[in-house]
Write a structure and sequence with these properties.
63 residues, 0% strand, elongated
Length: 63
């Protein structure tokens, strides 16, 4: 859906799950040791940037 080849979709999904459940720093740290194509690495780098995880949403909603 975001342009990741099917053979790397499981790995990419795991990183997106880590980003949502924990934060992007954990996902970026784990992404460093995984072999992916240059295109997939670029897509995942953009996808992992941002503030869309549970902790950040709570921070934005808190008074």
């Amino acid at each position: 859906m975001i342009g990741i080849p099917w053979n790397e979709a499981t790995i990419a999904g795991a990183f997106l799950g880590q980003k949502i459940a924990m934060n992007e720093f954990v996902a970026f740290a784990n992404m460093g040791g995984v072999e992916m194509s240059a295109r997939s690495t670029a897509i995942m780098t953009i996808a992992l940037c941002g503030f869309a995880n549970i902790g950040s949403v709570a921070w934005c909603v808190a008074p």
